[in-house]
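Re: [ENG-882] Designed sequences occasionally contain unexpected residues at chain ends

Forwarding the minimal case from QA. Structure tokens:
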């Protein structure tokens, strides 16, 4: 499997897509399977990561994982099952980081499946700010931290240890806020979530 090598020799950066959500406020429709541009939303999210520069992509699945595998075309992706997905996004982040352990990835760029307004330009900007295993980089929107977020591998163990419920890495990021490199992306992306029926209007 090929990986992206950064030009300054910092090594491979893997895309980590969290796509396990069951869409509780969407009538139990898994977010990965929501239709967008004629295909499941998870395909769009993977394409964004790849076009932004992540040639290795790990996708964490949960709700109706077998159905996602059957309906979505995800060639070349590492598909990671999270049997504890109902306990919140933190479990998916832990599962995804665990799947990268033992690979040559020196950083993980974490994206959420339900943010179709964030495109490859934002991914590329965050990726471009990576300087190595100690990097901690986040997209920002008018100065407010958002996704995607990049964690150098030295952060993975502590991120996983503190990721709980639907808060994911929020506690870790808050504690390490002075070390985060913020990359403004508000001019190239819109960080809305697909959480409710009203949000479905954002899908095409």
């Amino acid at each position: 499997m090929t990986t992206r090598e950064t030009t300054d020799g910092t090594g491979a950066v893997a895309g980590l897509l969290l796509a396990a959500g069951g869409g509780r406020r969407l009538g139990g429709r898994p977010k990965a399977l929501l239709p967008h541009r004629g295909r499941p939303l998870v395909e769009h999210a993977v394409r964004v990561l790849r076009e932004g520069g992540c040639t290795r992509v790990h996708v964490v699945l949960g709700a109706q994982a077998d159905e996602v595998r059957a309906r979505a075309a995800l060639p070349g992706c590492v598909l990671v099952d999270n049997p504890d997905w109902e306990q919140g996004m933190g479990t998916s982040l832990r599962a995804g980081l665990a799947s990268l352990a033992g690979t040559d990835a020196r950083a993980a760029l974490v994206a959420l499946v339900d943010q179709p307004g964030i495109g490859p330009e934002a991914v590329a900007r965050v990726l471009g700010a990576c300087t190595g295993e100690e990097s901690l980089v986040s997209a920002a929107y008018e100065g407010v931290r958002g996704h995607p977020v990049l964690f150098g591998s030295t952060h993975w163990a502590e991120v996983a240890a503190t990721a709980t419920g639907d808060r994911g890495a929020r506690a870790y990021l808050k504690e390490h806020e002075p070390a985060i490199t913020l990359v403004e992306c508000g001019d190239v992306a819109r960080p809305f979530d697909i959480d409710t029926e009203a949000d479905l209007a954002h899908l095409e």
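QA comment: On inspection the terminal residues look reasonable. The two ends are 32 Å apart (CA to CA). Proposing we downgrade this to a documentation issue.
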